[in-house]
Amino acid sequence: MEAFDYMRPTSVVDACAALREAGGTARALAGGTDILVQMREGKLRPAALVSLRDVPGLRSVRRAQDGGLTIGAATRLIDIETSPDVLRDHAALAEAASWIGSVQVRDRATIGGNLCNAAPSADTAPILIAYGSSVTISDGRDERTLPLEDFFTGPGETVLEPGELLTAISVPPAPARSHAKYYKTFRSAMDCCTVGVAVLVVFAPDSRVVEDARVVLGAIAPTPIRAPRCEEMLRGKELDTALMASVGALAAEEARPIDDVRASAEYRRVLAEVLTKRALAAADSWLQKGAGA
Amino acid sequence: MKTCIVRRGLPRIDAVPKVTGEARYTVDLKMPGMLIGKILRSPHPHARIRSIDVSAARELEGVLAVITAEDVPGTLFAFMQVMADKHILCTDKVRYVGDEVAAVAAVDDDTAEKAIGLIEVDYELLPPVLSVEDALKPDAPLVHEDKDSNLGFEVERLFGDPDKALAEADYVVEGTYVTHDLAHTCLEVSNCVVKWDKKDRVTVWTNTQAPHTQRQEVARLLGIPRANVRVISSYMGGGFGSKLVTDMKAPIAAVLSRITGRPVRIVNTRSEEFTTAKTRYPYTIHLKTGANKDGRIVVRDMTVIGDNGAYHDKGPATINFSAMMFGTLYNVPNIRAVGKLIYTNRQMGTAFRGFGNPQMAFATESQLDELAEKMGMDPLELRLRNANHAMETTSCGAEVCGCAMTECMEIAAERIGWKQKRNGANGTVLRGVGLANMVHTGGGGRFYGYNSTEAFIKLSDDGTVTLITSALDMGQGAHTAMAQIAAEELGVRLSDVIVLSNDTDLTPYDLGAWGSRATFMNGNAVFEAAREARLALIEAAAEMLEVPAADILVEEGQISVKGSDEKHAIAEIVDHSVNEHGWTISGTGRFVDKLPEGYTIKSAFAKNIPCFSFGTQAVEVEIDAETGQVHVLKVIAAHETGTTINQVMAEGQIEGSVVQGIGFALMERLISEEGRIVNDRFLDYKIPNIGDIPEIEAVCVESEGTKGPLGAKGIGEPGLVPTAPAIANAIYDAIGVRFHELPITREEVVKALREKRE
Predict the structure, then answer these.
(1) At the topology level of CATH, where does A5-50 sit?
(2) What is the ipTM for the molecules in this complex?
């Protein structure tokens, strides 16, 4: 491992200043479960690590009156997994967090880290996008907010500029009569996902008709992607088995997978189809059981 | 048999230091003045070295030595010297990605790494041979140009008349089975510290499974007398066969130490461990089995093509052993076993838990189910009709002593619910059950032309028992087993026994921990040493207490006289002996596994095995027909132990083996592109972890008739042998698809199901 500077600022302002001064290769350090491994493997050679350990205000989950969540970027996955505020209306996010690594990893890893590492397979991204989440980015003076789906620009790449820090994730309230589900498949337990699919379905009042839907695919393109044609197909239709199968088949078409050591592109398409179908079936079965009542 | 210490699940004697982190492994070793050595490895699978420029590396501050082939002895080496084909550092050619080209010693890790980056090698790329098929083509490039072809080794064994039997058999099935490239994935990577001292003695601290043979190998490589080499091992984080034959780290570190006068440490990175620490030999097995209407298997005929990798290691022995187990599993009158080892530009293979037997069992036990189907017979019934029985000699000369094969089958079938669950229900989640048998050595082998070892016991004046044994503990619990055998025979508590081991200056010559050998071989020597010490103790006690020796009892570390409540500490007896005669009490044990009459290494075949161990595994699987995911729900692993020395540890050995067997069957695989391994880390080399491991019911089936200590057999390897075919057979039961190639991945299952539908 090559030598690097290590800084421990005590405010967001100082953290951004430190990141800016160290230039483009500086990285913010939260749990370190991705960064330190990549540094050891020589894949990442940052000039400086800026620890967020002493920066206040980045480690919390707040639930607003309307049911929306504001999650500090340095909130640990284990705290998201077990948070009553998350579990209340956003259980699929808690579940997605619970599928990352081992307990020991989740005890260190943070949600902001999972997003900033920008792996196409990041498990929290698809479900957060399905919920319609946005991210808050600070440069120490000003903040900007953008939809999470616009945050990623490629494998390991985000819109963050030198001197910018992801500070919070905002998750809107779960719509009435909505059901969200994230499914992933893996080669062994505690593996990163081969394919992950998150689906949010909003049902019209008193019916099985889909009012709105979001379908998000992970590990199947350079970034987590929405599947707009799937969403379009769902809208205004009754969610029956035939529709689930058609949307599943369309998800396989909308995917842009590659062959790699984890799976072939062809198999990833199969998984996209199966998981999409299953996430829709989960929504249907939730509705049949009385929509969570 | 009434026992006090063995047959119980006593906690292992190294449990506390290991659990608390107090135990120091070789990889934890630090010494004053110690330098860090690193090896420059070939980035190409096959290339000629035109030149090497080390000048920039030599000039780097903090670098104390840089060496190439010119600086090391020019020894050609292989495990079997007659097959020697590898230099310490490559001279003119590199033959796989990872081949050793140059090395440095520096003050720290970063400097050594930087120095490695400064060495410039001019390579002339040569076309590589990356598969056995390519290597066998008439115009294939030669991995070793001094040889006529890429055929590295060939053997053929014949018993009966297989051609005639195949022509006459009522049923014949034929198939080709393929197994793959697998890593041992030891938690402690291969590593060493070497000090070449002023008296020209080379001390090697290393995590080896065989300190005494490693000592010979290091001496041979360096061209120095064996007496000048001392090998010391420590607590060890796994071996599984990968640490039997020395690799080039030890001689390289030795030369770096001689040049610098300081101890030099070389530790594999995890990537080096995956790419250079050797693999299980991939096999392609062409197999025929013939049977008659009465259900008797009359002939088996197989040709194994093994991928040797770039150099010889344990390949010939592995192929031979596979053939022996092939010939022995069932008593089949007509057997042909042909084995070939092919050089390729791949990482070398080596020993790996099961020694060729898991590959073989995948083929033979899969094919047996195919045969049963063709015959319209229940696969369990077919196996029961062909089971070996105690005290029989098979057609290939295997002397089956104690044998619980039938019992193992019955236990496994009953507990998995064979009758109820075969040909189970359908839906998107499909379930099935399957089983497979195995035979393996339970006591090493006579392959060196001998199989023997010694042990020593001394009783200190405080009554403590010190056991000096060569039994090597790589995590399997050999030290605890030895201490239990000593305590049992001597009549002391387990906590009274201290085990000294793993320093070649201290321990008797021994062949090492392989072939499920330690319990049987070292255990027998320990038993003899304990018996001798016990007799000496009784004699001294009888003298001191003035009673006949026959009336002396030694129990739980105390001496008593029959019919009396009076107890004496062992220390009192030893004290008496010291004061009266000036000597302490000790025992020497020697075990020589007697060679059968007319034994020769060449002809012995299955007579090389002193003790066979049988077993059966039955597996239930559940398959997600859409994703192809195979979930192993339950494994019943019934294995013969003779006498179980430690119930908990024996079950642990079986469970650990089954887990590796599941990895072998379903997920583990080294993936190469153009000769480069691309999944050289645990992120992408998947082994089963705690979340994947099903309920495993390990059943230790005791049997009589073996010559092991207190009747025990080795149990280190057997559990891995039948797991893969049992899973493959269960998958067939669930979805009606027969897999002939491992691993059976999700993708393969999905593909196969789609083909079946079409």
Answers:
(1) 3.30.43
(2) 0.94
